[in-house]
Amino acid sequence: MLSLALGAKYNPTNAFGIVGSALVIMLVSIYIIVDAACIGYIARRRETGFNPILDILVPLLGIAAFVPDWLFAVGWNPFGWSFIASLTYPASLTVRGVVIWMILGVIYLVCLYAIKPARVAEMARVHLGEEVVLFARPGAVIHPALANGAAGVVVTLQGRPVSVMGFAVRGRRIIEIPSLLDPDRVGKLDLSIVDA
Q: Which of 42, 145, 166, 170 is the most exposed place for a label (fewest CB within 10 A)?
């Protein structure tokens, strides 16, 4: 719909340029953020060893590869590269459009959270995983426990166990956290909650 409206106002070629630039700005931003997040993730999870080439250099090369594309899409040339030109009207509207779109997204999320927090929790469950959502619930209580004879935790809501997690340890590091998130199955387990 947006593409048709832009095409009617500015002509199809300009509309394609505006929409294409907007998509490049958003998608390349995501790639750069994910590359940076990989470095942080790997720095926190060192149980498999640390390889500076794979763990630092490869994500940095990914960022370096995408920065010129992002600069080209926004029409910003801080390094004086010959292949990046300032955007002309109406393509120059792209950056403002993307910023407005992102601000509207944040406003929508805040409003949705205020009106229907369960919807936000459902989306978090899809994108972040069940464990994160479970721990974020206001009534969730985490109890140290023994799960299959190993250290673990039981998460309860209103006194009812809804999740159990064990810690697989090798040496002095936790290498895996297997979890069971089905409240019905968790309720049937023989769990020993340890007094803290």
A: 170
Indicate whether 47 pLDDT > 70.
no
How far apart CA 189 and CA 148 sit, in angstroms, is: 10
Could you tell me if 160 and 141 are in contact, meaning their C-beta atoms sit under 8 angstroms apart? Answer: no
Tokens of 175: 């290498």
- Dist. CA 166–CA 153, nearest whole Å: 7
What is d(CA 181, CA 186) in angstroms, rounded to the nearest whole number? 7
Handedness of CA 189, 194, 195, 196 (dihedral sign): negative
How many angstroms from the chain centroid is the CA of residue 1?
28
Are 165 and 153 in contact by the 8 Å Cβ rule? The answer is yes
CA 78 – CA 86 distance, rounded (Å): 11
Q: What is the 3-state secondary structure (H, E, C) of 39-103?
A: HHHHHHCCCCCCCHHHHHHHHHHHHHHHHHHHHHHHCCCCCCCCCCCCCCCCCCHHHHHHHHHHH
Q: Reply yes or no on whether the pLDDT at 92 is more than 80.
A: yes
Judge if pTM exceeds 0.85: no
